[in-house]
Structures are given as C-alpha cells and as structure tokens.
Amino acid sequence: MEVHRLAVAGRQPEIARNAGRRVCRVWLRTSRFADVEAMATATLTLGPHAGSFYDRGWARRATGRPQPALEDYQQALTMYRQAGHRGNEAATLNNIGHVYDSLGDRRRALDHFHQALPILREVGDRAGEAATLNNIGGVYHGLGDRRRALDHYHQALPILREVGDRAGEATTLTNIGSVYDNLGDRQWALDHFHQALPILREVGDRAGEAATLTNIGLVYANLGDRRRALDHYHQALPITREVGDRAGEATTLNNIGSVYANLGDRQRALDHYHQALPIRREVGDRAGEAATLTNIGLVYANLGDRQRALDHYHQALPIRREVGDRAGEATTLTNIGLVYANLGDRRRALDHYHQALPIRREVGDRAGEATTRYNIAMIHRAGGDLDQAIRELEHVVDLDRQVDHPDLETDTALLEQLRRQHAEER
Where would I find the TPR repeats (predicted)? Predict the structure, then answer.
C-alpha cells in the first residue's frame, strides 16, 4: 500500500499499476470493494490502464453500481483487445455479462458469456471456463430454466475442484443449492449450502458468506422454521453492509420482511420491504424490484386491501416479463388470481391461474405448480365442481410427495375429505 501511495505521489505509473493490481486482487477476494475503488481511481490519475479499469469495474459492480461498472469494463475490454490479451478479454466479457445479468438484460448477459467461453477454452484457462459455465448457469436459473442451470453448474463443479479453486467451488455449490431450493428440494439445497459456507469463510469471501447465509435462511423459511431463518438473515445483514453490497442488503431485507409476513407481523414486513425497494431501484435490480413489489402486494392482500395488492402485482408483472423472469411471472400471476378469487371473481382468477400453470411446468417449479393447482382446486370446489377439484388435488398431493412439501399431510387430508363428500353426494 505504501509503495503504491508513493508511486502515485511520485508520478511513477508502472510501479503504481503493478503494486495496485497486486493489492487490489487480494482485496477483491476479501470483499474490500471500497478500498479497491479508491486504489484503482488513484492509479488512473496517472493515465488509462486496463487492469485498473477492470478492478474498479469489479468493485463498482459488487457494490451495486452497474452503469459506472459497465463504463470501466468497456474501457478495459477495448484496451485488452488492442493489446491482444485474450485471457483478460474473456475475463472482462464475463464481468460485462454479470452486469447485464444484474440489470435483468439476460440476452446481453448470455451473449457476453458465450463470447467468453470459447476464448477461455482456446487459451486453456480451465478456471475461467468453469466460472463462465457457472455464469451461464446463473442466467438460465434467473430465466427459470432450472434444468439448463443445473447442467452448466454440474459441468463447472468438477473443473473447479480439479484446479483447486476453492472460492469458485463454494460459489457453484451455493448456486446448485439455490436451484434445488427453487425446485422445492430443500434437503439437497441445505446440503449444498452447508458444503459452501465453511469454504467461503476459509477463503475470506465475506460477500459470498453473506449470500450463503441468506440462502440458508431462505430454505429454513420455506421449511417453516422461521426462527432459524431470521437467525441466518440477521447474521447476513451486517456483513452485506460491512462490504458495501447494496444489492445483497436489499435481498436480505426483503427476505426478513417475508419471514415477518409469514409470522403475521405485517407492519414489520412492510417496513423491511419498504427499506429494500428503493435500494433495488437504486442499484438497477429490476428482477429484485419486481419480487419486492410482489411481496408488498401479498401483505396488502393479507390485510384485505385488495386494491393495493392488485396495484403492486400489476406493477411487478410487466417487470417480470421485461427481465424474462418466468418463475417470478408465474408467482405474480398466481397471486393476482388469488386476489380475484377472494373478490369472488372466479373467471378472472382461473384465467390468471391457467396463465401461470404452463409456466410453472415449463420451468420445473413443482412446489409452485402445486400451489397454483391447489388454488385452481379451491375455485372448482367453491363452484361445486368436486370432480375437477379432486383431479387437481390429486396432482397437488403427487407434487407434494415429489418435493417433500410441508403441506403434504394437510393436502392429503383435504383430498380424502373431498372424495368422501363426493361419494356421499352421488
């Protein structure tokens, strides 16, 4: 650090650049993003330098400032291409892809990752190849295509172990865990997260540690263990603030809000969602913005304020479609259907459920499919069509068994009740 400071003060660019890059690489691994940005900015006072643009872009992306990050990465990309540095070109393409993904522009993200992948194979960069496979998997996961996501993650994992990339291994384990959680396979999700967490602590990845703690909290929340969920979220929140991870902070606030909503503490839920929403808008997280709007709508629906609920859902739905979040689109459609059902408008309710159902199947969301089918069954039951209600509930119970859903016992009991009722009415 002292060498770098003296080199900048003495207007010695080569020494400053070499010292700055060495220090920044260490700091990036330990989530010291504000320090990286300050050092790279100081280096750039001595003139353009691809490595310093790259490091500063990374720091800005990690702290939720996508547009300045893109500007830095584009400068780095141009300079690396001019110099013929193929490996660095691929790394920069990867990071530009990350920025577009965070902005919800999945098409551009995939375009940049697919430009990076053959370059990395060409130069024999196995670690970079694995990271890019991971990135492509992440985009497919965000698009709700979980099978393709798992395929890419499972290509990446053995390469990362082969090259001894412990941080990358932890990231991939976390990513696989997230997919299993979204598929409703919670035990597999926890298994992968608990493999990742000690590795992240071992390598000093504080931002990754916070993300994994948040993910473990999310699994416990989905299992109904709200105390454990809050415990993990409250471990994660101060870490996100410590490392300046605004996007991660918003995610954790959103998740804390969800736990309070499920506990029936709606005011605390709204308080946390309303802290999360402006941060998500500030960092340009459109997918996250839609998720938080949906969650706020859900609280208003549970408070009986159906107009406010619909207002928030209808703000969320076009954003879900804009960013290509198919799984989220299905969730919001289901929630809109539920409001119409509670208003007694069964036709509109069924219309929205039937829009959601093929999307749930398309993305492999069995737990979500069970929820939508359950809601359809309740509409048919309310309309006196027990045959159709029973058929839907049979699907629900089958899906519950597949994902070990906590509602399996309750749904099975309801199915048996409807079968008895149907037999008595014949």
Answer: 90-123, 130-163, 170-203, 210-243, 250-283, 290-323, 330-363
Q: What mean pLDDT do residues 219-225 have?
A: 90
> Which whole-number Å values give the CA distances from 308 to 137, 275, 299, in the listed order?
36, 18, 10
How far is C-alpha 86 from the geometric centre of its chain's CA atoms?
A: 30
Percent pLDDT > 90 in the chain is: 62
Contacts of residue 406, Cβ cutoff 8 Å, sequence gap at least 6: 223, 224
Q: pLDDT tens across 126-139, in order?
A: 999 998 999 999 98
For 409, counting Cβ atoms within 10 Å of its Cβ (0-12 exposed, 13-18 middle, 19+ buried), the class is exposed
Ordered by start, the domain boundaries in the chain are: 365-426
Torsion of CA 250, 256, 261, 265, to 10 degrees: -120
Look up the pTM and report it. 0.63
In this predicted structure, the answer to whether residue 361 has a pLDDT above a threshold of 90 is no
pLDDT at residue 422 is higher than 90: no
Higher pLDDT, 18 or 70: 70
- pLDDT tens-digit readout, 58-99: 888 887 778 889 999 999 999 999 999 999 999 999 999 988
The amino acid at 107: R
Tokens of residue 207, six digits: 């931002």
